[in-house]
């Protein structure tokens, strides 16, 4: 057992350190360990990969990616920004506030953290720089706000976790609403303090007429989450079918209402979706093989037995959170979820945690990884938009990581904040 674990994770981390893609690292580590330590046929890797991908809920991933790309090109994200600006644009640090609120709205459309950063940050970061914000801080708040994209439903990581943990994706979507709002409020508090301290932004007055006008203009965009979530919980369609409904709605609104989607924009949206989904599907498939081998080798049950020997649920949860925060610094959300769910889920079940609550806790942990170096993909997306070095952004994002970790602790130890909405 020990030899298997050392070889499996040793080969995986070695390959990752020398720059091999994560999917390749996982596949070669699984293949090598099986070859030298078991009599299992090598074809089982391919079998596990394809059987893991043969899942109706996983079809939601490319559909949500495509829906997000169409919304980005079809004028929906811009109108959401205008509405958020009218809603909170009079508060100190207005554009920073708008960035967070608009990211919360867009999170209810796309299900993707990088998509949220690029759609909202590409507009608000240049505006904040013009208004006198520190460029590194402006980029940091946009990167941090983008993490809400995987917490407020719909959420691609929730789909992955739901499939891995065999729990209700609909319940995960519903349970993610309050945590996403809490993280948004926490980031707005940080922004308010920083804006007051450094005199960021331009002071404006609340304008009810402008709010009403922007609401009317953005009403079709704001209806997207109502259609997605209302359809799911009204029993009209499944989460996967809701993603298809979001695509059709985005096409109709973008082409016939806002008239900003043309043939080229639609082609580009499909092209980007194919490229991203190709990478994601390959990664998920190989991760499924890796997770299947872990289970066959009884690694999850062995680790669970040792950790549960601590006999202190608080310590166990703190250890798991610390472990996930570290993992998030090095491995992407999807890989981490598929690999670690079969290892950690038996542990949290053993101390009485609801699998849906753990899905929220795990996703928030790994979402923080989007803004922590060296992986921190949100940092790199935001850096590319703002042309600010990642090292400078990382220094400014520390307070945001602190408040997000505080919210994480609340979600870990106060179940009602996540699963309370289910009862």
Please explain how this structure is put together:
This protein has 423 residues and is mainly alpha-helical. The protein has one domain. 77% of the residues lie in helices and 0% in strands. It contains 21 helices and no strands. The longest helix is centred in the middle third of the chain and has 34 residues, at 263-296.
End-to-end Cα distance, whole Å, is 41 Å
The run of helices and strands is HHHHHHHHHHHHHHHHHHHHH
Tally of DSSP helical segments:
21
Number of strands: 0
Percentage of residues in strands: under 5%
Compact description:
The protein is an all-alpha fold.
Produce the secondary structure layout.
Layout: H1 2-17, H2 22-37, H3 43-53, H4 60-73, H5 76-88, H6 94-110, H7 113-130, H8 135-146, H9 156-165, H10 169-175, H11 177-198, H12 208-233, H13 239-257, H14 263-296, H15 299-308, H16 313-328, H17 333-350, H18 355-368, H19 377-386, H20 390-396, H21 398-413
Helix pairs in contact: 1-2, 2-14, 3-14, 4-13, 4-14, 5-6, 5-12, 6-7, 6-8, 6-11, 7-8, 7-19, 8-19, 8-20, 9-17, 9-18, 11-21, 12-13, 14-17, 15-17, 16-17, 16-18, 17-18, 18-21
